[in-house]
Amino acid sequence: MVEFPPETPFLYGITDERFLNPFNIVEAVERAILGGAKVIQYRAKRKSAREMYEEALLVREATRNHDAVFIVNDRLDLALAVEADGVHLGQSDLPFELVKGIAGEEFIVGLSTHNLEQVREANEKKEFLDYIGFGPVFPTTTKENPDPVTGVELLCRAVELSELPVVAIGGINPSNLEDVCRCKPAGVAVVRALFEKGDPFVNAREIKERLSGC
Hints:
Blueprint: E1 10-14, H1 25-35, E2 37-42, H2 49-65, E3 69-73, H3 76-81, E4 86-89, H4 96-103, E5 108-113, H5 116-124, E6 131-134, H6 152-161, E7 166-168, H7 177-181, E8 187-190, H8 192-195, H9 200-211
Parallel strand pairs: 1-2, 1-8, 2-3, 3-4, 4-5, 5-6, 6-7, 7-8
Helix pairs in contact: 1-2, 1-9
């Protein structure tokens, strides 16, 4: 089992079916990892279960070959089927308290949070979680119905309040990383800034270099 990145802040890349497909996802993920991404989350919302399984298998192989942590979004069944390192759950997904019992203690479990009350609730059951995501910090178009923007100040308060590592997410790119960095999150999750345009290796390297100054 690959361990969750100990160094902070780490780069956490999330795939997006608008930019990636079975023909380019392996190369894109490999390039992102080589550029500095330590965690890759496979996220797809509009594909069939079979399509997601076949694509997730490709990402699993790429992450395994390059020693990156592999997380599957939402779907515990898919995560187990492809032998992922963990699953990332939303507030309306399978109760996270159940996951460790099903998948084992070493299985990584992340939870999306969008306000301080949800952070407090995660603290109360931290034995079932390995990290939380917090956001969206900035406006984002990677979700059809995004939660309200939290802003940087609330992110900073969430990091201070949380008893778990916090991964900042939502509209983060090289131009606003400095603001995010001052909150000292454990990780920074990006989608568009990594995979929408250009070479994911170059994109990841630029973000990683900026994170090194946090």
